[in-house]
Design goal:
Blueprint lengths: L2 H18 L3 E6 L2 E8 L2 E8 L5 H18 L19 H13 L9 H11 L5 H9 L22 E4 L12 E6 L16 H14 L6 E6 L4 H5 L2 H9 L3 E8 L2 E5 L5
């Protein structure tokens, strides 16, 4: 199936989910697939590229845009649940699964094989507990930021994890598992992620979180698209100290749609 045909299938699947909400949708195609969505006497438009360079990232970004649009026109509430005006139209299962249904239409074939990722993770961090490995695998397809126009994505997409972001209001909430992203944008590197920390700042934020939540947190994950061993090594004593107290730390390099666990440079 061609890239354009896969995009059409993705678009049609997403439109089907929106119609299940009770919204009226009309579609058209020119340079993009376009949907005009009407709900609660409000109208919005959503478009999808017919031939993106990275289908997975484009689809993730498109679904994020669609969720925002549905909230704007009152089809979804801010907390990712259905808006109250739509509840009477839906079965109980639909009420809880709309966001999951939208996420599910994203085509996953460009992501690194989860089995390979698990092997690399276990080889790189042999001391990692089975529980921590499973926890990271559970969010494997959700931890990659969507690109320069989006942050890592909806925090609700990875429940039971704290997601540390510069603009977040909940960084002080303690959780057993915590995720932070790092991305340095410069003249040489133009692909910075929105709402991510600089590399050094991300590690500092993570260690500060450990300090505040050391009686709760058991696992911290740094996802980054830039890696400077010299800078990272400045925090070796802190990461090792918290590990001795039972908080495991994992670093993951992102390149395109691939995720590669990477060993801390001093080990």
């Amino acid at each position: 199936m061609s890239n354009s045909a896969k995009q059409r299938q993705f678009f049609n699947d997403a439109v089907h989910v929106v119609r299940e909400l009770g919204c009226e949708v009309t579609t058209s195609q020119n340079k993009h697939f376009k949907a005009t969505i009407s709900c609660n006497n409000k109208v919005g438009t959503w478009s999808v590229s017919t031939s993106p360079s990275s289908r997975f990232n484009a689809q993730r970004e498109a679904i994020s845009d669609l969720k925002k649009l549905l909230r704007t026109i009152g089809a979804l509430a801010e907390n990712q649940s259905l808006g109250q005006s739509m509840l009477h139209m839906m079965t109980p299962n639909h009420r809880t699964s709309t966001t999951s249904a939208l996420n599910a239409v994203i085509q996953r074939d460009q992501i690194m094989n989860p089995s390979l990722f698990k092997k690399l993770l276990s080889d790189t961090y042999p001391e990692l507990s089975a529980e921590s490995v499973s926890a990271i695998l559970d969010i494997f397809e959700k931890i990659l930021p969507t690109g320069t126009n989006e942050s890592r994505g909806d925090s609700a997409a990875i429940p039971d994890w704290a997601v540390l972001e510069p603009e977040a209001q909940s960084n002080a909430l303690c959780a057993q598992k915590v995720l932070v992203t790092a991305s340095d944008k410069s003249n040489r590197f133009q692909f910075g992620w929105k709402n991510s920390y600089k590399l050094k700042e991300s590690v500092e934020v993570l260690l500060n979180y450990y300090q505040s939540c050391q009686h709760t947190t058991k696992l911290g994950v740094l996802v980054t698209n830039v890696w400077r061993p010299g800078e990272i090594s400045l925090y070796a004593s802190g990461i090792d100290a918290f590990e001795s107290r039972g908080i495991q730390s994992v670093a993951i390099i992102a390149s395109g749609t691939s995720l590669l666990p990477i060993c801390w440079p001093w080990r």
